[in-house]
Amino acid sequence: MSERFDLIVIGAGSAGLTAAGGAAMFGLKVALVEAGAMGGECLNTGCVPSKALLAAAACAHGARDGARFGVGASPTVTWSGVRTHIAGAIAAIAPNDAQERFEAMGIDVIRTRAHFLDDRTLGVGNRRLTAPRIVIATGSNPAVPAIEGLADVPYLTNETIFSLDVLPDHLVILGGGAVGIEMAQAFRRLGAAVTVIAPHPPLARDDAEAAAVVLRALRDEGVVFETGHQATRIVGQDGKITVTLADGRAITGSHLLVATGRRANIADLDLASAGVEAGDDGIVVDAQRRSANKRIYAIGDCRAGPRLTHVAGYEGSLVALNIALGLPGKVDWRALPHVLYTDPELAQIGLTEAAAREKYGEVDVTRDTFADNDRAVTEGDTRGFLKLIRHRRRVVGVTIVGAHAGDLLLPWTQIITGKATAFALGSAIVAYPSLSEIAKAAAFRAYAPAVFGPWPKRWAGIVARTRRWRA
Ligand SMILES: Cc1cc2nc3c(=O)[nH]c(=O)nc-3n(C[C@H](O)[C@H](O)[C@H](O)COP(=O)(O)OP(=O)(O)OC[C@H]3O[C@@H](n4cnc5c(N)ncnc54)[C@H](O)[C@@H]3O)c2cc1C
Ligand SMILES: NC(=O)c1ccc[n+]([C@@H]2O[C@H](COP(=O)([O-])OP(=O)(O)OC[C@H]3O[C@@H](n4cnc5c(N)ncnc54)[C@H](O)[C@@H]3O)[C@@H](O)[C@H]2O)c1
Known about the structure:
Elements: E1 3-4, E2 7-10, H1 14-25, E3 30-33, H2 40-45, H3 47-65, H4 79-93, H5 99-104, E4 108-110, E5 114-118, E6 121-124, E7 127-130, E8 133-136, E9 140-142, E10 170-174, H6 178-189, E11 193-198, H7 208-220, E12 224-227, E13 231-237, E14 240-245, E15 250-253, E16 255-258, E17 262-264, E18 278-279, E19 282-283, E20 296-298, H8 309-325, E21 337-340, E22 345-350, H9 353-360, E23 364-369, H10 374-379, E24 385-391, E25 394-402, H11 410-417, H12 422-426, H13 437-451, H14 454-470
Parallel strand pairs: 1-7, 2-3, 2-8, 3-4, 8-20, 10-11, 10-16, 11-12
Antiparallel strand pairs: 5-6, 6-7, 9-17, 13-14, 14-15, 18-19, 21-22, 22-25, 23-24, 24-25
Helix pairs in contact: 1-8, 3-4, 3-6
The structure holds flavin-adenine dinucleotide and nicotinamide-adenine-dinucleotide.
């Protein structure tokens, strides 16, 4: 016998938790299936530990840098202390994602692996669950490139680097994307030698001028970049790993971090039995995040598209509304933010200058520098700029590189979307993690009683009953 639900969500990361929680708040009978740790990547092996590590690194850097403010100190870094800080940050945030919290919302939380039996039924341990709507939110894994010898050396990924026993002497990083660059600065500031190896220019998807400001800061702090050459062969063991580049040079470090992108976590779901299609970059979805089977949605890292926590959360809310109320809401990426949490931060919302020129041809670009900003001068940090990109007087993108750049994005969200009410702020896409999220949280709290009030719930009940009757 199958157990019947209105909605089953597979995966309790940022995407799945938001979808399940939102649907339950409309009164739907929801099952949430999680094979690993509640909170998924962001809480356990992604945003939270990486930002906590960067904060510890900033502290060490601040101490070293204090002399120019007339403040002297020389930092002593204890790796076990840094790990305690990281564990403390995870533990403090974990209750938001905890099984008990979601069970208190009436959700049946099942801690095992799910796979499709057909397009309405999942095998979940020794249980069979069925629902007229299913959300796949199974996230992604590190994509490990096919480099000779890599599989035979003890390499690290985001899943293992935060639980290292010792601070590396020399961390070699494969990959010049967000993970590689954030980890390069963090480990360098904590005292490791760091070499970044990447075949392409680092931060290639970001505004090139802004990326140059960040990369200059990292070079000034001693990070070595070996770019333009593929790694062709890797040999070694614990404590000594050698990467040979295509030009024949060899780089030896004590540890190797592989940060070369992501692969959707969908291999064991048996998608074919549910009529769900996937390509190389994950499940194929439409703008409502519906898969090739319109009853099954895919959100967050498991589908082709931007892989960020605030995107996962946004898609989770969108499908909760779509499923509970029967709305045809579509994703809107016009004001999509992303932030690189290095020092200086690199923050982007909407289109970069290059993307805007490609899309529109003629664009207006104005820029201001932090050297002309008195607060930046008093803080002793005038690196960076803000670049405003307009097409026919309409703002289509903003790039900010500098201190706290991520928290300077918020007004541009409202300018780009043209939605400036507190209600709109409650559902805006705000970069994670940022202090600006407190504004969104307050706005959401103010409007939640109306959004999840008796009338929307009554309507959601009618939609759910109609689907059950049709099933
Ligand atoms: C080092 C690092 C730092 C990052 N920093 C940031 C940042 O600062 N800001 C930002 O916005 N993004 C950041 N990201 C990206 C962010 O972590 C992801 O985009 C986000 O966590 C994706 O959420 P998700 O819910 O889609 O997937 P996940 O969090 O991966 O959740 C998927 C869940 O599904 C479960 N699952 C998988 N298969 C099954 C199955 N068959 N049955 C049951 N359960 C299953 C998994 O166990 C997992 O818990 C970072 C990523 C990394 C690696
Ligand atoms: N601050 C943030 O928002 C943040 C921080 C970390 C991660 N993330 C997200 O996590 C995801 C994963 O990040 P990531 O950095 O692993 O992926 P990425 O796609 O951002 O970067 C991958 C990098 O690896 C390089 N690369 C590819 N093949 C390589 C090879 N064989 N050898 C060496 N380099 C190679 C690419 O040129 C690129 O620089 C991204 O989607 C990112 O959005 C976000």
